Amino acid sequence: MPILTLSEMAPDQEADVFVLMTSKEELTTRTGKPYFKVGFRDGTREVSFPIWDNSPWAVECRDGWTPGVFYKLRAVYRESNYGAQLDVRKIREVTDADAADGFDPAMCLPQSRFDPGAMFDELTAIVEQRIERPPLRKLVESILQTHRETLLVHPAARHNHHAFAGGLLEHTLSVTRTCVYLADKYAEYYPDMEPPLDKGLVVAGAILHDIGKVHELAQQPEGTSYTAEGALIGHMLLGRDMARRAAAEIDVDAETLLRLEHLLIAHQRLPEWGSPKPPMTPEALIVHYADDLDAKYHMMVAVLRDDKTPGPLTSRKNVLYQQVFRGGS
Amino acid sequence: MPILTLSEMAPDQEADVFVLMTSKEELTTRTGKPYFKVGFRDGTREVSFPIWDNSPWAVECRDGWTPGVFYKLRAVYRESNYGAQLDVRKIREVTDADAADGFDPAMCLPQSRFDPGAMFDELTAIVEQRIERPPLRKLVESILQTHRETLLVHPAARHNHHAFAGGLLEHTLSVTRTCVYLADKYAEYYPDMEPPLDKGLVVAGAILHDIGKVHELAQQPEGTSYTAEGALIGHMLLGRDMARRAAAEIDVDAETLLRLEHLLIAHQRLPEWGSPKPPMTPEALIVHYADDLDAKYHMMVAVLRDDKTPGPLTSRKNVLYQQVFRGGS
Amino acid sequence: MPILTLSEMAPDQEADVFVLMTSKEELTTRTGKPYFKVGFRDGTREVSFPIWDNSPWAVECRDGWTPGVFYKLRAVYRESNYGAQLDVRKIREVTDADAADGFDPAMCLPQSRFDPGAMFDELTAIVEQRIERPPLRKLVESILQTHRETLLVHPAARHNHHAFAGGLLEHTLSVTRTCVYLADKYAEYYPDMEPPLDKGLVVAGAILHDIGKVHELAQQPEGTSYTAEGALIGHMLLGRDMARRAAAEIDVDAETLLRLEHLLIAHQRLPEWGSPKPPMTPEALIVHYADDLDAKYHMMVAVLRDDKTPGPLTSRKNVLYQQVFRGGS
Amino acid sequence: MPILTLSEMAPDQEADVFVLMTSKEELTTRTGKPYFKVGFRDGTREVSFPIWDNSPWAVECRDGWTPGVFYKLRAVYRESNYGAQLDVRKIREVTDADAADGFDPAMCLPQSRFDPGAMFDELTAIVEQRIERPPLRKLVESILQTHRETLLVHPAARHNHHAFAGGLLEHTLSVTRTCVYLADKYAEYYPDMEPPLDKGLVVAGAILHDIGKVHELAQQPEGTSYTAEGALIGHMLLGRDMARRAAAEIDVDAETLLRLEHLLIAHQRLPEWGSPKPPMTPEALIVHYADDLDAKYHMMVAVLRDDKTPGPLTSRKNVLYQQVFRGGS
Amino acid sequence: MPILTLSEMAPDQEADVFVLMTSKEELTTRTGKPYFKVGFRDGTREVSFPIWDNSPWAVECRDGWTPGVFYKLRAVYRESNYGAQLDVRKIREVTDADAADGFDPAMCLPQSRFDPGAMFDELTAIVEQRIERPPLRKLVESILQTHRETLLVHPAARHNHHAFAGGLLEHTLSVTRTCVYLADKYAEYYPDMEPPLDKGLVVAGAILHDIGKVHELAQQPEGTSYTAEGALIGHMLLGRDMARRAAAEIDVDAETLLRLEHLLIAHQRLPEWGSPKPPMTPEALIVHYADDLDAKYHMMVAVLRDDKTPGPLTSRKNVLYQQVFRGGS
Amino acid sequence: MPILTLSEMAPDQEADVFVLMTSKEELTTRTGKPYFKVGFRDGTREVSFPIWDNSPWAVECRDGWTPGVFYKLRAVYRESNYGAQLDVRKIREVTDADAADGFDPAMCLPQSRFDPGAMFDELTAIVEQRIERPPLRKLVESILQTHRETLLVHPAARHNHHAFAGGLLEHTLSVTRTCVYLADKYAEYYPDMEPPLDKGLVVAGAILHDIGKVHELAQQPEGTSYTAEGALIGHMLLGRDMARRAAAEIDVDAETLLRLEHLLIAHQRLPEWGSPKPPMTPEALIVHYADDLDAKYHMMVAVLRDDKTPGPLTSRKNVLYQQVFRGGS
Asked: CA nearest E281 in D: which residue?
């Protein structure tokens, strides 16, 4: 039997697949018939279907299958009016030995389209080239290196945007690139601004603007959730703590640190988005706009990709709470 | 010549007074006549009047008198249609020797009606009696003792409420007293709440809720102003930093510290008042209400005291942006 | 057969119980199978389950069972994946004779944890002790006595807080106690306020602040609903009417009555919460804060008690529209 | 010497005029020169000018002239860069005997362009013809007759719209006329609405919608101000009180009274405009729109009349807080 | 077999009917049983019911029946707990020949209660009589005539108000009538307003205020939807385009055209309702109020007609997002 | 006598200067002394001073000097407590002959720091290179060429940002450059977006986003003001008209034109900023962010340049309505 990924399976094809169980709900039909609704996924496809109580898997499903666990399934993939389903033939938990057949837990989670290692390297290269003053550069490097492993797999959000492994890194890199452009542009554009634009600080702020999300969000196989400190304090303040902690061991001058701290807590601009202060420096202003555009653009791409409404306009039931124009009318 | 306070002087009385110069503005009348408008104050009375350029003090005023400096004046106090004035006969800067005549810089600043030392002692007594767990108690004690000297003289705000020396302490003590009452009340009222109300945390939160103002506001003889970190970060986050710093040396359990940090940043409740999170614990809810009432009540008292509008209603031009009913119609 | 309360029944236990029928809906499954969904409750437990059309009770259920009627049931209590159910063996309407077996309609409604009579007595004692001027005291006493029977059983709201028999009295007493504390505190704190705080008025306002709810809400066995005048006029204005009516026969001075009327309509403070005027007197300010805290605290207690979300945080789908921190993470 | 009105005087003309003193302020120039700024008016013109302390009137002005008092002046009217002024030659208080020369206090106040008596009569005629059910008709008649004298001279507001004697009556009549039209129109338009539109109630509501202003506003020669109950309770609730009081002696059915009360408190529609409830009946909806249009239209007329900004657009500093297009560009 | 309309059929009656198929959804019960849910309607009644896969119509339904197509059905009309249903005996598509039996596509769509031709004629008569200046009159006439066929059948909205064939015309006529009244009234009321009220412009604006809806909304048998330009640009701007296009061929003076354009884009007044400018002319103000009242009144009529909540108050789940008082309590 | 610019004059220096008269107000001191306050400016300095009525220029000033007229002055430049002044020795209107001495009206207006011609050329070069499809390119080119003369001198606003000659061009070019970067970036970043990002449309939208300002604002020597159509319609709609007019003669496909029109009216995003629709396409989203950042950044630069408040923070009285951090504390 071939080993495929779930995403590769064609309708009515039988194959072995490595999948993550994402959900198991005990439900009952209106006529009182009990069943379990179970979900399995790999990195890009998720299927969800019922196990009826007269299914041969009914008992095993109820007693043994556990969301958050990886399984090797032999199954036939079906598409019908009821959505995609799996006709399960065999099922067992993944073992260490499956690595030999190519199993890797990361293959069952949605992933950034970009290679995390390469993104991380690009980010550190930007730090190297763009943050001239050693203390600030060391501060950013130190935080990046400390959290390298987390950043390679962390999402940027639970649902809204870049909600996949490596999403935080992907978003951060994109914002940083835009900020490099904008910092160069506006520094040249207003050469007499006093004090002059601190281009290194713009870059440092771009890289660290969402860094607190490594503590705000907990990534688990079943999905991303808020940590207690994430819910009670929030990533902007947690990110500022990280900058302060790193600065305690590096000789960053007080005003630069203060400007960085301000940028981190002000980058969402509006109080109703959680920023206790609006951007009060040119550096904070630039990072806010680069960040906000990147998040909104990503959302719009996702809406255009996922919306199934016929016609030239999407539904307004999406993360943007508005219609998007698809065209082709 | 008797030494009086400025507040004690009767119309047309001549006396020696110790005063603080609060302002000096170089102005010109519409007809082009230049003059200086100068202000002097003691703890409860402030006068502001012109020094014309044909005054015998004109040159000395322009070249020597400096806002923020304490002076000994010999002067006649006048009240006229032009407001209260001083007819200056002699003027010199205060010297150390004036202490013998009763000079004390504090006598020239508005003061709390209550003795700062006694208020501070009451606060520490409450800590002693009401915060049972030693780590949390030590955390609060340590912060209070570290900032004792500042607290004895710090205001609670620039303008809005308790804007005078000792005002922060006065407001903090009042909020703490109310919180002691409310914590006892609601702990008794809902004995089965799970987890139970942390009465010690309510008291700790009440005492520390505005502690960040010692870094947010700078008190100077000429008036209170925002520091750079006050404007860019704000007292709620600065207060949380103080709690975290103190906790770093004391074995406070992680959840208690998290709840305290949350309380400090959430105590103003609304995002537009600067709280990035709403109160998400019963302890934070209590402190918010006790604090908000105390501030608003103080404002209403001040409006009733200061408003000069005739009739049963005050003007709406005040810190509350609304009319207050004085009655007696 | 033992007579138990519904709340006392253990799974699979059979017993006789007195219950209130709370709902009966005629539904049909997606496959076209008709059934009735019926609900029964006592003071603390409510169960809801289907009567299929092949049930022996099908005809009687359709033709005879009536929401709002009390029944004596013999039934087996079951807990299953479909929720709690009753396997009905016998059913008849309650008769007067059942009182001998302990039936009391109040036992089938959710109740305050406190004895209504004792709460009422405490409230009248506070009136006696705390409202010094006879006319105002008489006004409050007269309203309390006129509505005594209603107050002993009235809820404070349909859903939001204190939504149970005696809930209005429980909330009123709690607010009044806090107001007694705050009135004493602030009267002492600002002895020179002009006019001085009217402590009796604070207490009168606390007691009467929600009194209009006796006309705004109609309590019926099936649930609490808004009356026509409740929906069209609202409890704040209706409460003011009650105060004016009572005052018409008592010699309350005009300004005190006006201050009381203002307090009643202003106690929710914000226009979007229905107050046409903000609190414009110190007395109204105190009652607003005591009331708002008491309601919000009650809601938070209820959220902590009822929320079933796993982890340290509750869902945000609750009366507060926000997460509450439960901790224990 | 001819007796003219102030409005009739031509530049440099001398005449005798009856005027109301509207203001007297004791001021001082920047050079310390004291003077009084005094204001006098008749129904349509107001002048305001200084009495210098070397004026022959200086002493009499300071000691005797009193705002709110009517005077007979002999004066020359001047127009200059300093605005209109009066060169006072003689001045004495008005006496009863001046009535023979045509003095009437009303001639010194801004007046409705329409005859108050005629407006009142038209209003009562509409009641007669348009409110068919006797109890409701009597209720409205009774309130109108009770307040006839006040209505003939009362303004509709302090500043915003119809802020002149008879203004309340003028606004009420205009709203009522529109409501007669709209009630006929929509009753015919939706003949099957259930319950049918109560046309008499629309008219009653139109007539009484602002009636509470007779208690909310106090009209004095110096200007209109809010009464204590106006500020603390507001005209919508005070008007409802008047309707309830009148109904107490007339056999109005309960639902009609409730609908009328609702209409009175809901007619401003938005909570931020003081309505605790939105219009929940068709009758209330109609009165709201007729009222709001009439007020806004009057404001726009006034802005077009009073604004002095050159060009096709008015300033945005006016009661509408927006520009109005005058055109003619 | 008699030919009836669907609305005329009595329970259990068999008849031939001409109907429009409005929906066909492929669904599955929770037990996995597939079925189609189909909808048919005439002008006032709509029924929706399942075609089970064991129905004799199952195959034909799946393969042939098409929403948006007109059918002649022979069926028995049933009312049951499952709602109204049709027991289909025969079904075929409507043919041209059916016109002989009275078929007309319009009979299957909800219709204005008024005759479209008569409404259109009244509108053109108003133009004739009320718009005095030939260029403006021609502009309005030209737009009306160009879109006559569309106007006879266009709705005014998808859901909110006048959402039926002829609804745009019905709403436009009603608003225009009110505007004729108000223009006469206010022109007479403020004869000195400068510039004077342009009564012809009020009428032109009333007629054209929603004309852009002929391009914003696409009416199809299955329902009304937004066009691409409707969603991206909106009817106010599209209506202004129509006025500009028509004016290009008529000698309308520039200021009149500008005032008309402004009126069209400002008639919803609030930015959150899509008006980029508030009404800045008296003409725009009048049309806004007449329009807003007409829409809201229509909604309230519909809520009173359609709401099924027992008791004196409707639900708040309706187009007005508030309760409406039905009375009869 | 040397011919200098006003900006070049040193204190007490005498010179000949070409200036624009910007204001003349007839005022009076509080003591009744009449004078004229007059203003003159060149491109970067403006002075404003009194001409007393005993000045030798008093009569000529009153009768002859006219705001908006260019003058050649011989004067001594003074700086004093009263601000900068000119001691006028000679004054006459500028004549054609003065061109020989270097007079150019543009030298008296504030100017962009960049050469307008070069900016215009860069913009057209971008059009050439970046808008690939000929119809869209022609549309943009045609609008640019038609308005070339205006664009070389037009401001972007009255006060808020880029409020100087060439300001509209400067802002447009800056936004366009950012958009070129962002369009390339996001097109590469999301290569699979469907439909793909229309990079040419982003550039076209950037160039035209504010083009309607050439009709919204009227630039006059005395200052920039709104035109009638600017105030009543606004630049977003006027810009859309320009695009439509240009498209009428070019074969732009309907959907591209619709997307461009949408972008122009949606580019301010929020209804309260005048956009009737939010950005519903990726192209509109990009232009919105590039535009908003450029405007806000320019404002922040101006606040940092112009604010005179001592200390590390600016005042909050500025175009951003918030403090900006200057640092250097």
From this structure: D325
